[in-house]
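Researcher: We plan to redesign the surface later, but first we want a full-length starting point. C-alpha coordinates attached.
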Protein backbone atom coordinates (compact mmCIF):
# COMPACT_ATOMS: atom_id res chain seq x y z
CA UNK A 1 0.00 0.00 0.00
CA UNK A 2 1.04 3.59 -0.56
CA UNK A 3 0.95 6.18 2.19
CA UNK A 4 1.45 9.92 2.38
CA UNK A 5 3.90 10.65 5.20
CA UNK A 6 3.22 13.55 7.57
CA UNK A 7 5.89 14.42 10.16
CA UNK A 8 5.31 16.80 13.09
CA UNK A 9 7.62 18.03 15.82
CA UNK A 10 4.61 18.40 18.14
CA UNK A 11 0.91 17.63 17.73
CA UNK A 12 -2.07 16.92 19.95
CA UNK A 13 -2.33 13.29 18.87
CA UNK A 14 -1.37 11.39 15.73
CA UNK A 15 -4.71 9.56 15.88
CA UNK A 16 -6.53 12.90 16.07
CA UNK A 17 -4.58 14.13 13.06
CA UNK A 18 -5.56 10.94 11.22
CA UNK A 19 -9.23 11.73 11.86
CA UNK A 20 -8.72 15.24 10.49
CA UNK A 21 -7.02 13.86 7.37
CA UNK A 22 -9.87 11.41 6.81
CA UNK A 23 -12.28 14.34 6.83
CA UNK A 24 -10.17 16.60 4.62
CA UNK A 25 -8.48 14.14 2.21
CA UNK A 26 -10.90 11.21 1.97
CA UNK A 27 -9.22 9.34 -0.87
CA UNK A 28 -5.75 8.92 0.63
CA UNK A 29 -3.92 6.68 3.11
CA UNK A 30 -1.63 8.47 5.55
CA UNK A 31 1.27 7.67 7.84
CA UNK A 32 1.64 10.20 10.64
CA UNK A 33 4.70 10.61 12.86
CA UNK A 34 5.24 13.05 15.73
CA UNK A 35 8.18 13.70 18.02
CA UNK A 36 5.83 14.72 20.81
CA UNK A 37 2.09 14.58 21.54
CA UNK A 38 0.32 16.96 23.90
CA UNK A 39 -3.01 15.09 24.17
CA UNK A 40 -2.20 11.47 23.47
CA UNK A 41 -4.66 8.83 24.57
CA UNK A 42 -4.92 5.09 25.02
CA UNK A 43 -7.60 2.44 25.09
CA UNK A 44 -10.86 3.24 26.94
CA UNK A 45 -9.90 6.95 26.84
CA UNK A 46 -6.98 6.45 29.21
CA UNK A 47 -4.28 9.10 29.11
CA UNK A 48 -1.01 7.97 27.56
CA UNK A 49 2.00 10.08 28.46
CA UNK A 50 4.14 10.85 25.43
CA UNK A 51 7.83 11.49 25.78
CA UNK A 52 9.93 13.27 23.15
CA UNK A 53 12.24 10.89 21.33
CA UNK A 54 9.87 7.94 21.48
CA UNK A 55 7.90 6.67 18.48
CA UNK A 56 4.42 8.19 18.18
CA UNK A 57 2.70 7.22 14.96
CA UNK A 58 -0.63 6.47 13.30
CA UNK A 59 -1.67 4.71 10.12
CA UNK A 60 -4.80 6.00 8.40
CA UNK A 61 -6.16 3.24 6.20
CA UNK A 62 -9.17 3.59 3.92
CA UNK A 63 -10.73 0.15 3.61
CA UNK A 64 -13.67 -2.04 2.66
CA UNK A 65 -12.88 -4.80 5.19
CA UNK A 66 -15.47 -6.70 7.19
CA UNK A 67 -15.90 -4.56 10.29
CA UNK A 68 -16.17 -7.57 12.60
CA UNK A 69 -12.60 -8.56 11.66
CA UNK A 70 -10.99 -5.19 12.42
CA UNK A 71 -9.98 -6.09 16.02
CA UNK A 72 -7.67 -8.73 14.52
CA UNK A 73 -5.50 -5.94 13.14
CA UNK A 74 -4.37 -5.18 16.70
CA UNK A 75 -2.71 -8.63 16.69
CA UNK A 76 -1.32 -8.06 13.18
CA UNK A 77 0.23 -4.80 14.38
CA UNK A 78 1.58 -6.32 17.61
CA UNK A 79 3.45 -8.93 15.59
CA UNK A 80 4.92 -6.18 13.41
CA UNK A 81 6.16 -4.36 16.53
CA UNK A 82 7.59 -7.60 17.92
CA UNK A 83 9.49 -8.32 14.71
CA UNK A 84 10.74 -4.73 14.58
CA UNK A 85 12.20 -4.98 18.08
CA UNK A 86 13.65 -8.42 17.30
CA UNK A 87 15.37 -6.98 14.24
CA UNK A 88 17.32 -4.68 16.57
CA UNK A 89 18.38 -7.61 18.73
CA UNK A 90 19.27 -9.78 15.76
CA UNK A 91 17.12 -12.72 16.88
CA UNK A 92 13.71 -13.66 18.24
CA UNK A 93 13.27 -13.13 21.95
CA UNK A 94 11.45 -15.00 24.70
CA UNK A 95 11.35 -11.94 26.99
CA UNK A 96 9.07 -10.00 24.62
CA UNK A 97 5.40 -10.85 25.25
CA UNK A 98 1.98 -9.84 23.93
CA UNK A 99 -0.53 -8.61 26.48
CA UNK A 100 -4.12 -8.87 25.29
CA UNK A 101 -5.42 -6.95 23.48
CA UNK A 102 -2.96 -4.24 22.48
CA UNK A 103 0.29 -4.09 24.47
CA UNK A 104 3.81 -5.39 23.94
CA UNK A 105 5.88 -6.10 27.04
CA UNK A 106 9.59 -6.57 27.69
CA UNK A 107 10.38 -8.36 30.96
CA UNK A 108 6.75 -7.83 32.09
CA UNK A 109 6.90 -4.05 31.47
CA UNK A 110 5.03 -2.17 28.76
CA UNK A 111 7.22 -0.95 25.92
CA UNK A 112 4.59 -0.45 23.23
CA UNK A 113 0.87 0.13 22.86
CA UNK A 114 -1.60 0.01 19.98
CA UNK A 115 -4.85 1.93 19.65
CA UNK A 116 -7.37 1.06 16.92
CA UNK A 117 -10.14 3.48 15.98
CA UNK A 118 -12.70 2.74 13.26
CA UNK A 119 -14.55 5.71 11.78
CA UNK A 120 -17.04 6.30 9.01
CA UNK A 121 -17.02 9.60 7.11
CA UNK A 122 -19.35 10.21 4.17
CA UNK A 123 -19.94 6.46 3.84
CA UNK A 124 -16.21 5.73 3.60
CA UNK A 125 -14.69 3.39 6.17
CA UNK A 126 -11.35 4.20 7.77
CA UNK A 127 -9.20 2.38 10.27
CA UNK A 128 -6.73 4.33 12.37
CA UNK A 129 -3.90 2.30 13.89
CA UNK A 130 -2.05 4.23 16.56
CA UNK A 131 1.35 2.75 17.47
CA UNK A 132 3.64 3.95 20.23
CA UNK A 133 7.04 2.47 21.08
CA UNK A 134 9.15 3.67 24.00
CA UNK A 135 12.57 4.11 22.43
CA UNK A 136 14.43 6.23 24.96
CA UNK A 137 12.07 7.16 27.78
CA UNK A 138 9.40 5.42 29.85
CA UNK A 139 6.04 7.11 30.44
CA UNK A 140 5.15 7.76 34.08
CA UNK A 141 1.89 8.09 35.98
CA UNK A 142 0.17 5.14 34.32
CA UNK A 143 -1.10 2.14 36.24
CA UNK A 144 1.44 -0.39 35.03
CA UNK A 145 5.17 -0.85 34.83
CA UNK A 146 6.79 0.63 31.73
CA UNK A 147 10.18 0.40 30.10
CA UNK A 148 11.99 1.59 27.00
CA UNK A 149 14.39 0.00 24.56
CA UNK A 150 17.40 1.94 25.82
CA UNK A 151 16.85 0.76 29.41
CA UNK A 152 16.60 -2.81 28.11
CA UNK A 153 19.98 -2.41 26.37
CA UNK A 154 18.38 -2.53 22.93
CA UNK A 155 19.89 0.03 20.60
CA UNK A 156 17.06 1.67 18.64
CA UNK A 157 17.20 3.79 15.54
CA UNK A 158 15.67 7.28 15.51
CA UNK A 159 11.89 7.41 15.32
CA UNK A 160 11.69 7.93 11.56
CA UNK A 161 13.97 4.99 10.79
CA UNK A 162 12.13 2.86 13.33
CA UNK A 163 8.88 3.73 11.58
CA UNK A 164 10.36 2.60 8.25
CA UNK A 165 11.31 -0.79 9.75
CA UNK A 166 7.94 -1.08 11.47
CA UNK A 167 6.02 -0.43 8.26
CA UNK A 168 7.94 -3.11 6.37
CA UNK A 169 6.95 -5.60 9.08
CA UNK A 170 3.39 -4.28 9.21
CA UNK A 171 2.94 -4.76 5.47
CA UNK A 172 4.19 -8.35 5.73
CA UNK A 173 1.85 -9.18 8.62
CA UNK A 174 -1.10 -7.35 7.07
CA UNK A 175 -0.64 -9.13 3.72
CA UNK A 176 -0.39 -12.50 5.48
CA UNK A 177 -3.61 -11.73 7.33
CA UNK A 178 -5.42 -10.70 4.14
CA UNK A 179 -4.20 -13.70 2.14
CA UNK A 180 -4.35 -16.47 4.75
CA UNK A 181 -6.71 -15.24 7.42
CA UNK A 182 -6.30 -14.95 11.17
CA UNK A 183 -5.13 -18.51 11.90
CA UNK A 184 -1.36 -18.05 11.58
CA UNK A 185 -1.48 -14.60 13.20
CA UNK A 186 -3.41 -16.04 16.15
CA UNK A 187 -1.01 -18.98 16.47
CA UNK A 188 2.07 -16.72 16.46
CA UNK A 189 0.52 -14.37 19.01
CA UNK A 190 -0.58 -17.12 21.40
CA UNK A 191 2.92 -18.62 21.53
CA UNK A 192 4.10 -15.34 23.05
CA UNK A 193 0.98 -14.41 25.04
CA UNK A 194 1.52 -12.87 28.46
CA UNK A 195 0.08 -14.94 31.34
CA UNK A 196 -1.54 -17.54 29.10
CA UNK A 197 -2.86 -20.29 31.40
CA UNK A 198 -2.74 -18.00 34.43
CA UNK A 199 -5.38 -16.24 36.48
CA UNK A 200 -5.93 -12.66 35.20
CA UNK A 201 -8.42 -9.82 35.54
CA UNK A 202 -9.80 -8.11 32.45
CA UNK A 203 -11.22 -4.59 32.72
CA UNK A 204 -13.31 -3.47 29.74
CA UNK A 205 -13.97 -0.03 31.22
CA UNK A 206 -17.34 -0.92 32.72
CA UNK A 207 -16.69 -4.19 34.58
CA UNK A 208 -13.88 -6.44 35.76
CA UNK A 209 -13.85 -10.18 35.07
CA UNK A 210 -11.38 -12.61 36.61
CA UNK A 211 -10.56 -16.06 35.30
CA UNK A 212 -7.88 -18.25 33.76
CA UNK A 213 -6.62 -16.95 30.42
CA UNK A 214 -7.31 -19.96 28.19
CA UNK A 215 -7.24 -18.69 24.61
CA UNK A 216 -8.28 -16.06 22.10
CA UNK A 217 -11.04 -17.01 19.70
CA UNK A 218 -11.14 -16.77 15.91
CA UNK A 219 -12.13 -13.10 16.08
CA UNK A 220 -9.55 -12.12 18.69
CA UNK A 221 -11.76 -11.99 21.78
CA UNK A 222 -10.23 -13.33 24.96
CA UNK A 223 -11.54 -16.56 26.49
CA UNK A 224 -11.47 -16.89 30.28
CA UNK A 225 -12.37 -19.91 32.37
CA UNK A 226 -14.38 -18.70 35.35
CA UNK A 227 -14.51 -20.21 38.83
CA UNK A 228 -17.78 -21.99 38.02
CA UNK A 229 -16.15 -23.70 35.04
CA UNK A 230 -17.84 -21.60 32.35
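Model: Full-length starting sequence:
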Amino acid sequence: MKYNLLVFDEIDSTNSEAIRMAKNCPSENYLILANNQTKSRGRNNKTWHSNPGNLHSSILLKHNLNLSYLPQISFVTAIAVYKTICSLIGSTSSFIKFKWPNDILINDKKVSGILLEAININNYHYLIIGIGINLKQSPINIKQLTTNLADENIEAKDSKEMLNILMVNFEKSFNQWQEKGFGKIREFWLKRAYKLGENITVNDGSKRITGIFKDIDQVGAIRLQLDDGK
